[in-house]
């Protein structure tokens, strides 16, 4: 049962990683791309670590995986917020319209 639960967590984590990658490619500007990755990476890493903890059982390895999760849980959203704040202070404006005439490869440098 633990093996099945582990594989479910690993598969869901993989799915969220792919969704975050698609978000980087599909969204129009820096802020929406950052939002797509900032949301999915924490949960993706959490599901990976949970799946690995199920594989390890109740050992010191699972405790170490839990500590890694706590570190990622606090630092990943903080890093996303800091990046968005630095971009805003640097003068990068969010794209507010649905105008398809701009080049989305510029990361919002309109």
UniProtKB/TrEMBL annotation:
Transmembrane segments: 45-74
Pfam family name, one: PhaG_MnhG_YufB
Positions of the UniProt region annotated as Disordered: 91-110
UniProt keyword terms in alphabetical order: Membrane, Transmembrane, Transmembrane helix
UniProt xrefs under InterPro entries: PhaG_MnhG_YufB
One Gene Ontology molecular-function label: sodium:proton antiporter activity
Name of the protein in its database record: Multisubunit Na+/H+ antiporter, MnhG subunit
């Amino acid at each position: 049962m633990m093996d099945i639960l582990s594989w479910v967590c690993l598969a869901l984590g993989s799915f969220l990683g792919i969704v975050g990658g698609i978000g980087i490619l599909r969204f129009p500007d820096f802020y929406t791309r950052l939002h797509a990755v900032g949301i999915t990476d924490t949960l993706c890493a959490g599901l990976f670590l949970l799946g690995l903890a199920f594989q390890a059982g109740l050992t010191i390895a699972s405790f170490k995986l839990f500590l890694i999760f706590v570190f990622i849980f606090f630092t990943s959203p903080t890093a996303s917020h800091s990046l968005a704040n630095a971009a805003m202070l640097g003068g990068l404006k969010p794209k507010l319209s649905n105008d398809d005439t701009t080049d989305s490869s510029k990361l919002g440098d309109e």
